[in-house]
């Protein structure tokens, strides 16, 4: 294990917390007030059972960073409650549960290359590609007068995930989505 200051933690990293459990970082934000001590708030999910926790520590406090190995895998298919991935070098298959994949599950596409984080030879969590391209299945019609560039409307993509899109995007349009925050990036160029 390696000690690292709290302000250096980013989404997807793994922490060995004081309770001896492994947690994956969902979000880390640093707050620097005008007066007082800067703090870092870390939203994290316990890998063992998926329970989400939030901690707030001084930015200079040290936390244990778990040594994890990133291994490239491609998503194959869903089998019941498990998601099957294959290592393209060794052709070993591995299955992950919905809790291990987390909130990005709606952006998982067949043959998508993902990074599976391994700890002591066991899969603990996954890092999805930063951007995915998906087609809009349905969206609400544009409300007349709602043409301001800051207004967005809800849309459902082919995987069933919900994304907010600009008013000019219609059903059938392929869009690029940022998987980290489920946000619309641009219309696909394909």
Give an overview in words:
The protein has 190 residues and is mostly beta strands. 2% of the residues lie in helices and 52% in strands. The chain contains 1 helix and 16 strands. It has one helix spanning 98-101; strands spanning 2-5, 14-16, 22-31, 39-46, 52-58, 62-65, 69-79, 82-86, 93-97, 113-119, 122-127, 131-139, 153-157, 162-165, 174-178, 183-187. A 6-stranded antiparallel sheet has the order 1-6-2-3-4-5, with no helix packed on it. A 5-stranded antiparallel sheet has the order 9-8-7-10-11. β13 and β14 form a beta hairpin. The model has no long low-confidence stretch (mean pLDDT 83).
Mean pLDDT: 83
What percentage of residues falls in helices of 4 or more residues?
under 10%
Q: Strand arrangement, largest sheet? A: 1-6-2-3-4-5
Structural class: mainly beta
Major sheet description: 6 strands, antiparallel
Count the helices. How many? 1
Label the overall shape.
flat
Strand content: over 45%
Low-confidence stretches: none
List the SSEs and their pairings:
Layout lengths: L1 E4 L8 E3 L5 E10 L7 E8 L5 E7 L3 E4 L3 E11 L2 E5 L6 E5 H4 L11 E7 L2 E6 L3 E9 L13 E5 L4 E4 L8 E5 L4 E5 L3
Antiparallel strand pairs: 1-6, 2-3, 2-6, 3-4, 4-5, 7-8, 7-10, 8-9, 10-11, 12-13, 12-15, 13-14, 15-16
């Amino acid at each position: 294990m390696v000690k690292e200051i709290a302000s250096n933690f980013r989404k997807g990293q793994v922490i060995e917390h004081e309770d001896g459990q492994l947690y994956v970082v969902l979000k880390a934000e640093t707050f620097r007030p005008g007066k007082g001590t800067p703090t870092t708030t870390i939203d994290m999910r316990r890998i063992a059972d998926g329970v989400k926790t939030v901690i707030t520590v001084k930015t200079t406090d040290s936390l244990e960073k778990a040594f994890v190995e990133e291994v490239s895998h491609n998503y194959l298919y869903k089998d019941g409650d498990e998601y099957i991935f294959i290592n393209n070098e060794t052709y070993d298959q591995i299955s992950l549960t919905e809790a291990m994949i987390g909130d990005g599950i709606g952006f998982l596409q067949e043959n998508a290359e993902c990074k599976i984080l391994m700890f002591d030879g066991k899969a603990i969590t996954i890092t999805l590609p930063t951007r995915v391209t998906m087609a809009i299945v349905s969206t609400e019609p544009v409300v007349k007068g709602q043409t301001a560039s800051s207004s967005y409307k809800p849309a459902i993509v082919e995987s069933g995930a919900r994304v907010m899109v600009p008013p000019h995007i219609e059903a059938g349009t392929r869009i690029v989505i940022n998987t980290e925050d489920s946000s619309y990036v641009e219309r696909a160029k394909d």
